[in-house]
């Protein structure tokens, strides 16, 4: 993060927790230089990038706008390409039919030769290629006990040192929970307890008899047998299944042909993660415990996993720095922080603001801590008064932040439209005028939102001082 004119980042969010991703994103948004970034984090790209370079078949193509805009434009191009391909194939079939019928006839030989030359000169349109080679889903769980598991007044940690205390969780079928919290707060430790890989230190835990856990964590990639194949790993789970059945299943995770039989030692991190996920899906669990499942996965596999999880009928508890994944598959958020686990009242945008509040409060506390300790009762009263005074400003800042994000997204969408060459054709004069008007209005709204955000920030800073 030293001063530079050009910054080159290759998967910078891999292995970062959500807090660090948000910090890096905010820093990069303020970075004044040129940024070239490779990332599989969709929301990260949407927030930071204003151009996308798509590389396919050794050819790079530049698209204006963020990742979502690129997806939309590319889908339209693929649809047009496929339509043109099909039209050309019909034309080729028609010409070839004529050649086959009349090539041997003396009266038609000249026309047949002409059509042969026409085919030779024709620039063939390639069939549209869709990137995603993944096609899998979770089967309906055999049983869905209710409750699936309970933790009552539980304390957990390592040895005699507790990391989290007084945990109360009640997991039911259909629950879709995302765990939030600072790095080292205990999210992964909690997942290990729920996966029955770590014993509790105090309290009561109850797991349903028919509970069938599906647990994904990064260390499982290291537990794969490197000298064995994807097919071998699946056969260990179900020796009675036919090879054809297992190969068809692995094909949904893009393990096809020789890849099914190859030893996994040279596999990339993404391929090993896909294999661990394939083994998990195959076992048909009714409770999924996912600890950073998107690490190493590319955008297509992340999308396929997100779609599969949306249709999953069991319960999900997930830790992830991929905000798009969290928004797509969860409807409850729990905060793991300060030795506690509690339901978080808000969404991921609110969590970002909560992180900023914690930093401000920690900074202020560090600056104003007296050399000698003061009465705790007086301190608690002062803290309560302080929170009461700051809350309206934090609420206003949260509202202004959401407005800023909304107007930024609208501005990017309009800029993507203005980058389309077809918009400047004579037939689109009315639409062009409308888009330019909307762009002017959004620019004005964005400027007003920025001013409002700055005023609130200054009030907050003055109040905290």
- Look up the CATH topology of one domain: Rossmann fold
Radius of gyration: 28 Å
Instruction: Label the overall shape.
Output: flat
N-to-C span:
29 Å
- In the CATH hierarchy, what is the class of one domain? Alpha Beta
Topology, number of strands: 13
| Adjacency order of strands in the biggest sheet | 9-10-11-7-12-13
**Any idea what the CATH superfamily of one domain is called?**
P-loop containing nucleotide triphosphate hydrolases
Question: Could you tell me the mean pLDDT?
Answer: 84
Structure summarized in a few sentences:
The chain has 465 residues and is α/β, with parallel strands linked by helices. The chain contains 13 helices and 13 strands. β3 (51-56) and β4 form a beta hairpin.
Question: Can you tell me about this structure?
Answer:
- This protein has 465 residues and is of the alpha/beta class.
- Among the domains are: 149-349, 3-Layer(aba) Sandwich (Rossmann fold), CATH 3.40.50.300; 375-464.
- Helix content is 49%, strand content 17%.
- It contains 13 helices and 13 strands.
- Helix 1 (18-30) links the parallel strand 1 and strand 2.
- Helix 12 packs antiparallel against helix 13.
- The chain is flat and about 105 Å long.
- It starts with 5 loop residues before the first strand and ends with a helix.
